[in-house]
Design brief:
It comes from Lachancea meyersii CBS 8951. By secondary structure, the chain is mainly α. The protein has helices at 35-39, 42-54, 59-63, 71-116, 134-145, 147-177, 184-195, and strands at residues 5-12, 26-33. It has one domain. Helix content is 63%, strand content 8%.
């Protein structure tokens, strides 16, 4: 088990009907990542759902939320949305996925050290006549130890795929709505390097 990763993000409410009287339209969300959160991902999935809903799912609405329709105002709104909302959201999700990927690697090493290198001298010799199911049972027990690791690596792979799809889709929308000559994915990589 490694250290915890604390992720903080500001979520801007897009629907003015959700604002409370005298309240601000920005909510601070915090998620503390640890191995348990990676293995029991319900809270992480909820966090991702909120981030995706408030950024990736409403790109067009947020970009159309400008009072003025001139090119300068639209470009300013695009730049503000990308740098303050979209890129930080992508970065947080990728950091969380990377954290869980690292935890999966550590878990695999721990499992291999504990269950993968047992020599036959340490295990009782199984005689098929005494217990015909012992070999299969031994394999099933060993595989059960690796189940959490397999589920976690599958989740990491799925989340990486989802992020790639969302980023490509967002880049296409931004190219149509904002500046078609900007490489938003390359700019995001520059953004990630600047915040590390």
């Amino acid at each position: 088990m490694g250290q915890d990763l604390v992720l903080n993000t500001q979520i801007r409410i897009t629907d003015p009907n959700l604002k409370t009287k005298g309240g601000d339209d920005v909510i601070m969300q915090t998620l503390t990542m640890n191995r348990d959160r990676c293995l029991n991902r319900k809270l992480v999935d909820s966090f991702f759902k909120v981030l995706r809903h408030n950024n990736d799912d409403v790109i067009r609405q947020k970009l159309n939320n400008t009072g003025e329709k001139n090119k300068k105002a639209v470009n300013a709104r695009c730049k503000e949305f990308v740098t303050q909302d979209l890129y930080p959201s992508w970065d947080l999700r990728l950091r969380a996925i990377g954290f869980c990927e690292n935890e999966a690697s550590c878990l695999k090493r721990e499992l291999d050290a504990k269950h993968g290198t047992e020599s036959s001298a340490q295990r009782p010799i199984l005689n098929a006549r005494m217990d015909p199911y012992a070999a299969a049972e031994s394999t099933a027990v060993r595989e059960s130890y690796y189940q959490q690791w397999r589920e976690l690596t599958r989740w990491v792979d799925n989340q990486r795929g989802i992020e790639q799809i969302l980023q490509r889709t967002a880049a296409d929308i931004l190219a149509r709505a904002c500046n078609p000559y900007t490489s938003y994915l390359a700019d995001f990589e520059k953004f990630r390097k600047s915040v590390q």
